[in-house]
Amino acid sequence: MTTERGWAGPLQDVRVLDLTRVLAGPSASLALADLGAEVIKVEPPGSGDETRTFPPFRDGESHYYLAINRGKKSIVIDLKTEEGVQLVKDLAAKCDILIENYRPGVMDRLGLSYEVLSAINPGLIYCAISGFGQDGPLRDRPSFDIVLQAMSGAMSVNGEPGGLPTKLGIPLGDLIGGINGPIAILGALHERNTTGKGRLIDISLMDGMMGMLGYLAQLAFFTGEDPKPVGSQHPNLVPYGAFPASDGSIIVACLTNNFWGRICKAIAQPELESDGRFNTIEKRRNAREDVNAIVASFTEQHTVDALVELFTEHQVPHAPILGITEALNQPQAKARNMVVETDHKTLGTIPIVNRPIKYPGADQAIPSAPPVLGQNTNEVLADILNLDEARIGELRSRNIVG
Fold first, then answer.
1. Per-residue pLDDT at 1
2. With contact defined as beta carbons under 8 Å apart, do 96 and 40 qualify?
3. How far apart are CA 400 and CA 77, in angstroms?
4. Candidate list 18, 78, 174, 207, residue with the active-site label
5. Are 253 and 240 in contact (CB under 8 A)?
6. Residue 225: is it exposed, middle or buried by C-beta count within 10 angstroms (0-12/13-18/19+)?
7. Rounded to the nearest 5°, which phi and psi values hold at 250?
8. What element of type H or E holds 211?
9. DSSP 251
10. What is the pTM (predicted TM-score) of this model?
11. Beta partners for 100?
12. Per-residue pLDDT tens for 267-282?
């Protein structure tokens, strides 16, 4: 679970059988690994998880796989064989949680359905993650992040006014599986403490994206109209969004009338606070172009650093727009220990993004590096299934495991 001494986390006595690939499922098992669970990632022979083949590479290792598989163990099992399926059944009998993100019906055809595995292990919590869920007219349709963004309504409100909708820069359609999946699993773990029984969990990524619409959905209910894209602005709050600086751009966010007063003082126009054209949230919304022009005419004359200093002085909500490298190296990220080094089997010492959840006062261990393909096959089969060296060697010789 970890390569350095320290507290693994609150789930260190929990074992997860991870039959996921690509992003939605692996992000869910990653969250559990970050919380200290032992995560056994089952990969197919050959190339393993598809993301191992996604460029760019370093010494044969994919950046994509490295990003979302820290703290896990890799075991290679051929699920196209009866013996491979039996090995998974044997492992499921000794695990608390199983996560899979195959298309609905695939696990049934493999003989690894919830009904089959729960009969072996009644306490098993079985989390099935799919694009559209286990029922409904789109159940069997393949899904991708951009498809989920488009069909959930999220993409329709992303982009600049009057332009084509734009997908989010982060793959939230897939990553929502790493949010809702673990929440549901932890709820089921708590329930099991009382009932002693596991349960089936049905996570739909499109359901999750719709749940993320938040106040935008309620706005549509209220007005009967679809919210329109407003770029980095807000549909109702002004000024709010990106403004030009002499050497870049900066975010300014006016959430209340109190903040409007602070902005007016910061841009050296305190009289605007009580100006009848702009002194309520509704008036500023209706005068969006005028308000934005006033703020922009000030910000474009100053550098980002100068604006940060000025807005900080006046307690105006703001932020410089950082690139990813700069964001990961900023003092706040360093103070929170968000980038750590760990030892990879083939790459040596590598940086990884640290677990985002912190437990003050706990000496949490650094997560182990993402495993190379099949790195832990022998260990898992020997330690969990008690297979001896000869049996593991025989399974390897017939490519059942790798």
1. 40
2. no
3. 6
4. 174
5. yes
6. exposed
7. -145, 150
8. helix 205-211
9. E
10. 0.92
11. 19, 128
12. 999 999 999 999 999 9
